[in-house]
Amino acid sequence: MSPFLKTFLDIVLWRRGPQDLPSSALLFWLTVAAYVAVSAIQLALQGETGVTWLIFLVVDPLLLTGCIWLMLRLYGHPERFRQTAAAVLGTGALLGISLYLPLQLLLDALGQGPQSGLSMFFALLLLATFALVTGRILKLGTDSSLLTGVAVSLTYFLLINLLLGFAQGGGS
Predict the structure, then answer these.
(1) Which residue, 86, 92, 52, is CA-closest to 69?
(2) Residue 146 and residue 148: Cα distance in Å, rounded?
(3) pTM for the whole thing?
(4) Cβ pair 29, 93 in contact under 8 A
(5) Cα Rg of the chain (Å, integer)
(6) Which of 57, 61, 78, 112 has its CA 20 to 30 A from that of 72?
């Protein structure tokens, strides 16, 4: 296992944090690419088209990194942006490829649609995992509380889903 992959796994498991990553532009852009690639695989498997691809491949990473930048700026730690953003994007890609995709494939094999009870349970479990992992990364990056980090990660989640709803015509 590569050292960075192990570090991202350790961050997911709460054994390490964004401070354990180098402040590297290359690592930041590699995690952006990995995050977008995993999103593209998820979208392809779901058979999504058009605006959903635009939201998740362009708006999502921009909104996510924008929220991280703003939070770090507000808490007086803008110098931690590359590490914190790389940690969030890298763990997001890791969770997507190791949890979300296998669960999606399992649900498809079982014939469980997105509205089934099992699908909704897994979606809630994945949301909680995302909120806790991202919340802890933001806590460490800003020297704030876990509650603050989780609140920001859930706010981001609500924002991206509101934007998706509006873009797909649900806001009219």
Answers:
(1) 86
(2) 5
(3) 0.92
(4) no
(5) 16
(6) 57
Specify the DSSP element, H or E, that contains 59: none
Domain locations in the chain as residue ranges:
3-14+24-167
The predicted-structure confidence for 25-51, as pLDDT tens digits, reads as follows 999 999 999 999 999 998 888 888 788
How does DSSP classify residue 55?
I
Burial grade of 63 (CB within 10 A; 0-12, 13-18, 19 or more): middle
d(CA 87, CA 19): 9
pLDDT band at 1 (very low <50, low <70, confident <90, very high): low
Output the CA–CA distances (angstroms, integers) from residue 93 to 38, 86, 87, 96, 138, in the order listed: 6, 10, 10, 5, 17
Amino acid 170: pLDDT? 63
Band (64; pLDDT cuts 50, 70, 90) = very high
